[in-house]
Recover the amino acids of this structure.
């Protein structure tokens, strides 16, 4: 038997809200976004689908609703920004985090905490792509379909977002190691 | 250094899926020898893991849940948002709906009546095994935990594939079996190929479930059913909402001997 839309959305709601919060960085707007996207999906998707496909559909609705809302207000998170993948790699220096802290070690917890705080400082479009590619683990091709971006631009934004988080973490670890703060 | 840049371009993101062509093989071979490239890829993998672990996971507020369910109930009862909004939404989603319908019809057409609630029959597994050479998306790895995360996100089943004596895991892919998405883990050992299929059969009332503990495959309802399709050994069985299959160029007796290693995924977590 097909599971009701209400039941399916219930199981994904926390993740959808987390995604919406990451996109909008605002609780009120995140709630509005989830509600609007859910109503759209409810009306236009009456077919029984596998759970994984339902999640994709809801993410797609969330992303397109978010982009529409932003663009209506003259803010396009995906407006051309930076270069394509090769240019981005050339312009982004890679400084290894050395030594990379062991999972579970105090250094690793510092990195986790640091990452969770600097997420919000990423470019809006890069953060959206990072969420889809790294948290939802969608393939670049699928992220491109969902966002309307060119495949190479998806790669570039994803690369830039990962690198800027790791660079900032590397600096933070260096700062702490040199006595700037206790680990 | 130009070569290193090309290699990283080919293999980045380090935890992503890629087409297993000659370029990828050459890049992987380079990365095994090159300290800089292997460090770069290793760090990329670790950063990706950190990103996933660090994201703020927030519970949806109760008010949102209540408002959403109230709105859905209103939509269901036919007193929705303004007609203008509805029309606009319809247009935007019409293309998606057409695609979804076409897909559903296509899947229905290829549905094979199986012995257990329309689940794939042995010939479907053999068919998929034989056309796997054209598979595009894959995860080439011997890391069973990496495969578990791959299946967790693709199928919602966190299933580390078991280690099989003498066999090495070498890749994982997603298959489409009679309209159901499943996972395939490929093993090999000196010219012997073995593929393990796991098809979640969620929400299917007609599928016999034989319990959740590891002993379920000892029971009659989940005893591996063995057959030979196109010269391949195929063993299939059901347990705990999943259909399993082992397909390979191995004697059926050997597949039967191996089947217990692949018992209900929940017992292996
Ligand atoms: Zn290299």
């Amino acid at each position: 038997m097909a599971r009701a839309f209400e039941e399916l959305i219930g199981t994904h709601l926390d993740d959808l809200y987390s995604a919406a919060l990451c996109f909008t960085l605002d609780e009120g707007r995140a709630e509005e976004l989830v509600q609007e996207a859910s109503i759209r999906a409810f009306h236009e998707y009456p077919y029984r689908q596998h759970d994984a496909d339902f999640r994709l559909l809801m993410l797609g609705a969330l992303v397109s609703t978010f982009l529409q809302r932003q663009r209506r207000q003259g803010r396009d998170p995906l407006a051309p920004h930076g270069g394509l993948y090769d240019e981005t790699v050339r312009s982004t220096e890679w400084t290894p985090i050395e030594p990379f802290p062991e999972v579970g070690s105090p250094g690793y917890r510092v990195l986790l905490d640091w990452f969770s705080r600097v997420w919000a400082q990423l470019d809006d479009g890069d953060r959206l792509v990072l969420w889809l590619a790294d948290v939802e683990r969608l393939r670049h091709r699928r992220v491109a379909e969902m966002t309307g971006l060119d495949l190479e631009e998806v790669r570039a934004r994803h690369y830039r977002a990962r690198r800027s988080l790791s660079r900032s973490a590397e600096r933070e670890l260096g700062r702490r190691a040199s006595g700037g703060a206790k680990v | 250094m130009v070569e290193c840049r090309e290699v990283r371009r080919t293999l980045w993101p380090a935890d992503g899926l890629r087409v297993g062509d000659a370029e990828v093989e050459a890049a992987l071979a380079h990365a095994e020898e090159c300290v800089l490239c292997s460090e770069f890829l290793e760090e990329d993998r670790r950063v990706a893991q950190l990103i996933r672990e660090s994201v703020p996971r927030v519970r949806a507020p109760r008010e949102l849940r209540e408002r959403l369910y109230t709105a859905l109930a209103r939509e269901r009862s036919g007193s929705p948002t303004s007609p203008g909004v509805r029309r606009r939404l319809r247009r935007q989603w019409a293309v998606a709906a057409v695609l979804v319908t076409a897909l559903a019809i296509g899947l229905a057409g290829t549905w094979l009546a199986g012995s257990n609630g329309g689940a794939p029959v042995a010939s479907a597994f053999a068919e998929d095994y034989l056309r796997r050479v054209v598979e595009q998306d894959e995860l080439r790895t011997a890391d069973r935990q990496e495969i578990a995360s791959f299946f967790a996100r693709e199928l919602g089943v966190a299933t580390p594939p078991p280690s099989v004596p003498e066999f090495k895991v070498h890749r994982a892919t997603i298959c489409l079996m009679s309209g159901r998405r499943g996972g395939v883990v490929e093993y090999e050992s000196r010219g012997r190929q073995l593929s393990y299929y796991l098809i979640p059969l969620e929400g299917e009332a007609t599928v016999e479930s034989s319990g959740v503990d590891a002993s379920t495959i000892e029971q009659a309802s989940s005893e591996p059913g063995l057959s030979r399709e196109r010269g391949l050994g195929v063993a299939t069985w059901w347990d705990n909402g999943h259909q399993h299959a082992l397909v390979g160029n191995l004697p059926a007796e050997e597949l039967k001997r191996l089947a217990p290693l692949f018992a209900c995924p929940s017992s292996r977590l």
